[in-house]
Structure formats: C-alpha cells, structure tokens
Design goal:
Layout (H helix, E strand, L loop, with lengths): L1 H23 L1 H7 E3 L13 E3 H5 L3 H7 L5 H10 L8 H4 L10 E9 L1 H6 L19 E8 L5 E13 L6 E11 L2 E4 L7 H4 L18 E3 L5 H11 L3 E3 L3 H9 L6
Parallel strand pairs: 8-9
Antiparallel strand pairs: 1-2, 3-4, 4-5, 5-6, 6-7
Helix pairs in contact: 1-2, 4-5
C-alpha cells in the first residue's frame, strides 16, 4: 500500500505546484479560474469557482483550446504539469500492510476552498494559529476508502499556500498523510506534536491556566445558529471560525482544536 499512498502524495504535490505557480502569476491565475454557473454552485455558498486546470491536467494543446488560443500560459503550465515530483518521507517505507485493491475507492477535491485562493489577500492573520479566511485555508484533499463500508483507509491533505517568500513571491506548502487499516495506524505528524500543548488557550482562562471550557471547536461562519449556540455554550471563547472543510479537518489533525 505504500506505493499507492506515495503516488497519491506525488499527485497532491503536483497539484500543489500548479496552485503555487498560478498564484505567483496573477494574470495566469485569472485565466484559469472562472465563476461557476448558477446550477453548478455549491448551494451553501453565494460564490463558487471552477478551477479549470486543477480538474483537467491538460497538455499544452488542450489548454490552449480552453484558453481561447492563448499559448504562453499553456506552455508554462504544461511544464509544471509534466514535471517529475519526488515525495520523500521515511515513514512511508515503514508501511507494511496489504489492502485488497478491489475494495478501494478514491475521492478527490482538487482544490478545496477555491474562493479563498481566488479572492482573499495573502496578509490575513491567524487567530491563535487558526486562519479564519485566508489562502492558508486552501487544501488539496485525497481520500481512499472501502467501497463496501465507506470507511476511510488512507488520506492526504496538501496545503499548497502556507507561507510566501516576499522577495520571490513563491509559495511554500505542507503535506500530511495517514493510513488506518486493521491494526496498522500510521501518519506523517511528528510525535512531538501534542494536542494539549498546541491547542489554543481561550481568553477566559483562569489564573491557574485552566479554562472553564475544556473543549474547543472550529466551524464555518455559515453554520446554523443552533449549532453556533451549542458550541458557544460548550466551548465558549474556544470556538474558532475558519473556511474550508479540509482546512478545518487539518486544524483538528494538528491538535489546534478538539473538533
């Protein structure tokens, strides 16, 4: 299974490279993003976008057709699309488990939280480590699941726009993965990451450092008022807001919040 997982990681890295290349060149980026038509939009959001390139992986010729004959952009993008990507992680070599391939299904979101990648500026500040609405909320999501039960078996979260070099304007990203099958449970997080040590402390914490609200949560601003009210009652000031389902899941994985 390590070979399949490694391939998925390489695919996510290639998608991340494309995102970074597009974000570095604004004119190029806007050539590749169009607003979805009314019937295609996610009904939960007022504005949604279709990332042409992320879903297609087209070659120069096909990209040129999509971009109405534009040649410079397709040529630049084709180099990124066909560039070899190497993903190294020693932990992958320790994966020694066999999963029947005929039960595997794959779900992909090539660029979650597209709106933040398109419209939001790069200088949004984090709230105790959690970005409420920024390019850091953009993720590439890949899930391998059991088609018989629907249970996730392998997962990849690639965060392509974590930090930007102000001199070169190049973006750097991070990638996380995990595998859980039978008695095998392995992931890419460093063992030094601890939820208790990294979880944000609410402003209402007592002088002894203990919070009257022991739980924390990250949710969307578009959540129903009933859910907001319940979480506010349970978590108090430890209720955080963030965009993107993948990014919110990543906040939990990193131990920044409980749910």
């Amino acid at each position: 299974m390590s070979e399949i997982l490694r391939e998925l990681l390489q695919v996510s890295e290639k998608a991340a490279n494309i995102t970074q290349a597009c974000r570095q060149q604004e004119a190029l980026f806007h050539l590749l993003i169009e607003e979805k038509k009314e019937g295609e939009k996610n009904k939960k959001f007022a504005v949604d976008f279709r990332p042409w390139l992320m879903c297609s992986g087209k070659t120069t010729e096909l990209l040129s057709r999509v971009l109405s004959g534009n040649r410079s952009a397709p040529e630049a993008l084709a180099k990124v699309v066909h560039r070899d990507v190497a993903f190294g992680d020693p932990a992958l070599d320790s994966v020694d488990t066999s999963i029947p391939k005929d039960i595997l299904g794959i779900w992909v979101d090539p660029i979650d939280s597209t709106y933040r990648c398109v419209k939001v500026s790069a200088d949004v500040k984090a709230n105790q480590g959690i970005f409420p609405c920024s390019r850091q909320c953009v993720t590439i999501l890949i899930c391998v699941y059991d088609i018989q039960t629907g249970v996730p078996l392998m997962g990849v979260i690639n965060q392509p726009t974590v930090s930007q070099d102000l001199n070169t304007l190049r973006w750097k990203g991070e990638c996380y993965w995990g595998l859980s099958y039978m008695r095998t449970n392995i992931h890419s997080l460093q063992p030094t990451i601890s939820k208790n040590s990294s979880k944000p402390q609410p402003a209402s914490a007592s002088s002894e450092g203990e919070s009257p609200h022991p739980f924390s949560a990250v949710i969307s601003t578009s959540e129903k008022e009933t859910i907001k009210a319940v979480l506010s009652w349970v978590c108090g000031d430890s209720t955080f807001w963030a965009a993107g389902a993948g990014y919110k899941s990543l906040c939990v994985v990193q131990g920044l919040v409980d749910v």
